[in-house]
Amino acid sequence: MRNTALALATAVSAALLLSACSSQPPAPEQGPATVSDGKSTSAAAAPVTAQGVDPYSLAALKDPNSAVYKRSVFFDYDQYVIKDEFKALIEAHGKLLVKNPKVKMLIQGNADERGSREYNLALGQKRAEAVKKALMLQGATEGQIESVSLGEEKPRCTESAESCWSQNRRGDMLYSGEF
Predict the structure, then answer these.
(1) 147: nearest Cα among 115, 113, 173, 114
(2) φ, ψ of residue 108 in degrees (nearest 5)
């Protein structure tokens, strides 16, 4: 009974926090990661993708049709607030971590080239911590997640233009064996 109450309180807190951070209505949920009643799914009744893969299994990480295939959360300039469009992604990865308690994740916070090295390292850390907190609100544990900042040191794009900088303002989620 206590575990059920704790799980319900955690789910409500996560929903309130995620909705409080938004300035727009939430994006519609998509794909197999959607759980309409907010309750966790047991292993016996786990939903499967079209390919027959449990969407919260480690195999789903390699399935391009899976909700956990994407691993990056992108941020606005000089911000570390998770945008509405990434909330479903965070929810899916959080569920995967809850279902697989021995799995570890490393979140790498990144920044674009603008700003000093020290500023970008601090901003990257804030972005990584924002993703970590959101995952923990989904039920992942502190022991599963490590957050680090790479600052501007690992760009996806090296041109000096907004279209490129927007690709570098991100938090990347890596799982055990990928770091």
Answers:
(1) 173
(2) -105, 115
Render 32-79 in DSSP notation, one character per residue. Answer: GG--TT-PPPPSTT----TTS--TTSGGGGG-TTSTTS--EEE--TT-
Q: Secondary structure of the chain: what % helix, strand, coil (to 5)?
A: 40, 10, 45
User: Amino acid identity of 38?
Assistant: G
State the first-to-last Cα distance of the chain, in angstroms, to the nearest integer.
38
- pLDDT tens track for 75-116: 999 999 999 999 999 999 999 999 999 999 999 999 999 999
Span 6-27, average pLDDT: 39
Question: Model pTM?
Answer: 0.72
Q: At the topology level of CATH, where does 2-27+53-175 sit?
A: 60s Ribosomal Protein L30; Chain: A; (3.30.1330)
3-state SS class at 23 = coil
Instruction: Say if CB 71 and CB 110 are below 8 A apart.
Output: no
